[in-house]
Structures are given as C-alpha cells and as structure tokens.
Amino acid sequence: MKRDLICIVCPMGCRCSIEEDTSAPKGYKVTGITCKRGEDYAIKEVTEPTRMLTSTVRIEGARLPRLPVRTSGAIPKERIGECMALINQLQVRHPVAMGQVLLKNLFDTNVNLIASRSL
Ligand code: SF4
Hints:
Strand content: 25-35%
Bound molecules: iron/sulfur cluster
Shape: elongated
Structural class: alpha+beta
CATH class of the largest domain: Alpha Beta
Strand order of the largest sheet: 8-5-6-10-9
C-alpha cells in the first residue's frame, strides 16, 4: 500500500510517497524525496517510527514552576503516550542541571529523559 508522508528531517519538508517494492534494495520505493536522509526517514517511518519528545515537568523550589525536558534520543512513536504519563507524574526538586538525567532508560530503549536547561 502506498503512503504519502512529509519528511521531517529538515525544514525543507519534502512531500514523498513510499510503497513496498521487493525489487528495491531496501524493500521500499520512495519517491519525492530530494536526499538520502529522506529515504531513510520514510522507510523508518513505515517500519519503526520514532520521535524525540519535548515537554516540561513540575519543579519544586525553583523560580519557575516547570522545567523543560526532552528525551536524549528518539523513542518509539507508540510509546509517546506512556512517556507523557510518566512525565506528568514526575516532580523534581531544585537545583537541576542542564542534561541531568531525570528518568533512565525509558522503555529499555537506552534513551533517558533529561533536563533541557539548568534551573
Ligand atoms: S528529503 Fe532531504 S531535503 Fe527533503 S525534507 Fe527530507 S532531509 Fe530535508
């Protein structure tokens, strides 16, 4: 089945299509992309889609009520909801350093939730 996608690797946002093609080296034919990174993205998006996640968590004792956080790498797209549930339950205490690990090894992916800034 053919799927239309928008590549999110860079700001160009190329529109592309992907469909299975057993004669193609990677098993998929990708059209509309303008670089190799777009092809890799399209194949990954239909085989094992992942996303970086950014959000905020409650912080106690700081001058701001919420601390910006992000995942240290991409996590499976289907785990985003569970990850947000963990983030919503999390409360940290001042002081926190930029890059500090707040949740380790999310869903056994070797990706951590880290602070995006010091606070
Ligand atoms: S295909 Fe290449 S140029 Fe186009 S959005 Fe993706 S990464 Fe950017």
